[in-house]
Amino acid sequence: MPRNKLKIVTDSCCKIASAHLPGRSSKGYAACGVLFLDEENQVISEHSQYLGEMTVPQAEYRGLIFALDKASGVCRGELEVWMDSEFVVRQLNGDYGIKSDNMKPLFHEVKALEHRFSKGVRYFHHPREAELAVRADQLANKELKKYRP
Predict the structure, then answer these.
(1) Do the Cβ atoms of 84 and 27 come closer than 8 Å?
(2) Domain span at residue 100?
(3) What count of other Cβ atoms lies within 10 Å of the Cβ of residue 14?
(4) Alpha helix (H) ranges present in the chain?
């Protein structure tokens, strides 16, 4: 039976080799972790996906796209999304614009997926140390290790 409301916690990890060195690549291997919660904030399912090689912002958007697509299979009403990427949350809420041409298609894909939810999608930022944020990050890292040990 479809849910009227669903809360999502999503996080992506992106491992960039030699990230601390000058001249390093800005791309790394990425994966995402997603938690679905009911109206009482109880975790009802966990999901993860390997995303491939990309930048950190691309990984955050790709993880969100995965989460929204997956969520539309169990909820068509109201969706609440929690992320630790304040930058992405502010972009999605219209506080920041999208300047990078390679990010615009990802932003538009998210906005298109939002139409699957009749009561809308709301985005919230939480600190990376939040309990559920840590759990989503652990899922992402576990998924990444399957492909990039």
Answers:
(1) no
(2) 3-147
(3) 25
(4) 56-71, 86-92, 104-114, 131-147
Single out the residue of 9, 10, 17, 11 nearest to residue 148, CA to CA.
Answer: 17
For residue 35, the domain's CATH number is 3.30.420.10
Residue 121: what are its φ and ψ, rounded to 5°? -125, 130
Vertex 98 angle, CA 95 and 102, to 5° = 155
Supply 80's token pair. 């609440």
pLDDT per position as a tens digit, 78-111: 999 999 999 999 999 999 999 999 999 999 999 9
85 neighbors 14 (Cβ within 8 angstroms): no
Neighbouring CB atoms inside 10 A of 54's CB total: 20
> Which is more confidently placed, 149 or 98?
98
* Total structural domains within the chain: 1
Give the full edge-to-edge strand order of the sheet including 43-54: 43-54, 28-37, 3-15, 75-83, 121-125
